[in-house]
Amino acid sequence: MKKFWLLLLAAIVATFLAACSEEGDESSGKVSEYRTVYSGEIKTLNYLKTAEANEFAMSANIIDGLIEYNQYGIVQPSLAESWSSNEDNTVWTFKLRQGVKWVTNEGEEYADVVAQDFVDGLNYVLDAKNESSTAWIATVVKNGDAFYNGEITDFSQVGVKAIDEYTLEYTLENPTPYFLSMLNYVCFFPVNGEFLAEKGESFGTTKENVLYNGAYILDKFEPQNERVLVKNDTYWDKENVFIDRIRYKYNKEAGTVAPELFLRGEVDSAAIPTSVIDEWFNDEEKKSQVRQSQNNFYTYFYALNFDPQFDAQYEPENWKVAVNNKNFRKSLYHALDRVSAMLTTEPYNPEDMLNNTITPKNFVDVEGVDYTQLEPLKNISNTDSFNKDLALEFKEKAMAELQGKATFPVKVLMPYNSGSPDWANRSQVVEQQLETLLGADYIDIIVEAGPSTGFLQEVRRPGKYALLEANWGPDYADPASYTDPFTEGGTYNKPELAEGYTESNGKSKYQNMVDAAKAEMDLAKRYELFAQAEAFLIEEAFVIPYAVGGTGYIASKLNPFEAQYSPFGVTLEKFKGQKVLEKPMSNEEYKEALAKWEQERAEALAGAGEQ
To answer: Where in this chain does the record put each Solute-binding protein family domain (predicted)?
Structure first.
């Protein structure tokens, strides 16, 4: 979600600037500016290395990949003008757009963008010493995994090559009909190899140490102060870039102060926390400026950590004993009142935001049947996990089985990102609700404020939690995009370390189920196997699904239906195609526009031959 900032000018000064064409239309020299305030700082501009959402938001606007999407979610040419694949979707060939330029942060032309740039980008990502957080996605390419693991050292054996200056070819490990949907992800972005070699480890550390081929150039980059994007005048599609300048202002209390800054005219977008949403809807002037956020394909869940690395005072070893008991996990699973939790974000229709599975509805389907309605996932998808009686039943079983093994109450460390007021409120609600239902004799949930910047690096990835609200967005159009984060070496909570699930080949049962699904190329069978794996993950209570993303309310001068749309990659972070509105959308205007967009999207998808 984007929130924007600029120092408010006095009305008389603004009027003067308008007379000087600063605020006129484009033909008279208008500078269209969008302003936000933020608290989570960007730590790197190295798009080939990062996997953090706010850094994706920067990458999306300064670097173009092979493809992009229109406002209805249909693939469009970007740096690739055309493409084709062989019959079994293992070889993909792209014809690149000629004349696209790499430029410096001062807008000076550095080189043409050519096919070798995509080869060099993937070489960097798959070189393990660079520690790219997205390398696992790129291993779809033939020998990508072998190169990453050092089994081969000659990158020419990896399935990517520049056939000529403007022809790029990928050879994949397996038939991959959804490969296009992976290409808007940063691991497939290009880089100029000469520049990368020259900069070495300093690549992406400053605005000068990165090249730009996208819609914007980073004009100012002052961490914990301000960053400014300006339109790239050499951009190949600059006619469709309508916002000239995007200004981000740092404030460690951004989540709290943004609504007031919006009302004062200092920012052009602000998330409206639940704590003040009633006030906005009960004030006629404010009511006309606030609307619902558009739902997205991020899935939210509570992860139970099987590799706790938090301080001794929170008794990580005791937690480890408890979490390895299935009945203990199931007691938490059935005790979480997700409606109460969602009231902190959506106070009016929280049930609409609930999600019972990891993969959201309407993501993929088989012959018109939604993936979440495949057996055995169907029953989970259609049943609320909250059940007081079951929660207490599993509690009694767990206490009996853990007698003499675990100390009660079990301390449950549950940190949150201090930059999110709603997350802070939700943590308090969940703590009180779980402890009230299950009893203070059973669990002691410890809510702890984590950093607003670097939360992933400092808390979640090192495993400094017992129970954690987490989220995941898809990277490509296949259920594997949602199951992979929980596999061995994946992103979340190390379920492969759960005791009692290792099979004869040394891998966990869940890992073997996912591997079997990945190996199946018949789409219907593939999705059934993934559904079985996901159902197993949830039924064993390794995770507790609870919501979809994009919930809550926002005051914004952006029309979300002008933006590029796709569940995959960095698409939703792009400003290209959007314009600054004179006034924000009301909720009534939003609902009307949403209905119109949904109808137009259905027609567009049908016309494109997509389901």
So the answer is: 75-492
